[in-house]
Specification:
alpha+beta; 9-stranded antiparallel beta sheet; 5 helices; 9 strands
């Protein structure tokens, strides 16, 4: 009887403390999100708000939430601080792999894409042009969770990608982390009704 009681208690506790990205859950309103932030969300345009969540990660400087009036929170984007890297992309790739491995502890093994898309240009496929080819848009380094399995936290998918910082000199990149909730398709359906 005591074991059953302990199992029930742990089950109830785990329901209340399940991990939600940055303390945010699918369907939250702007008011509910505000309660999880250090300051008021700032409307950028349409459904997009910049926030400073109480539960944040030291790697990320910028957080954007996408909140629809009908369906609530449907997407989160976190953008890292600029990462200065060499022409091989070593520092950016190391940050990517470290973060990917940490996220994998929560969501399992991702599908990783690390490719150079311009097959006719073998010269820029060389390691010493890794960052150049990323900047030019012919290289991709990304990881996706949920492409063929269900995720927890009402998530449809999670994605991490390397990008090049805009406004900085050539050797600076960033990581962008995307959380797409299951209600994102309802927002897309609503937007597609105009066609």
């Amino acid at each position: 009887m005591r074991k059953l009681f302990l199992v029930m208690i742990f089950g109830i506790i785990s329901t209340f403390i399940y991990a939600a990205p940055f303390g945010l859950k699918m369907g939250m309103t702007v008011e509910e999100i505000t309660e999880q932030c250090k300051e008021e969300p700032s409307l950028v345009k349409d459904d997009i708000y910049l926030i400073k969540p109480t539960k944040s990660h030291p790697l990320f400087d910028c957080y954007a939430v996408y909140v629809n009036e009908k369906t609530g929170l449907y997407q989160i984007r976190a953008i890292s601080s600029p990462i200065t890297t060499n022409k091989f992309g070593t520092e950016l790739k190391n940050s990517f792999n470290s973060l990917k491995d940490r996220i994998a502890k929560t969501y399992g093994k991702p599908k990783v894409t690390d490719k150079y898309s311009n097959a006719s240009d073998s010269y820029h496929q060389q390691d010493e042009y890794w960052f150049y080819s990323l900047r030019e848009g012919s290289r991709e380094l990304s990881a996706v969770w949920g492409y063929n399995s269900a995720l927890s936290d009402e998530l449809k998918s999670v994605a991490l990608e390397c990008t090049v910082s805009s406004g900085f000199y050539d050797g600076t990149g960033q990581l962008v982390l995307y959380y797409y909730f299951k209600n994102a398709s309802a927002v897309e359906d609503e937007q597609d009704e105009v066609f």
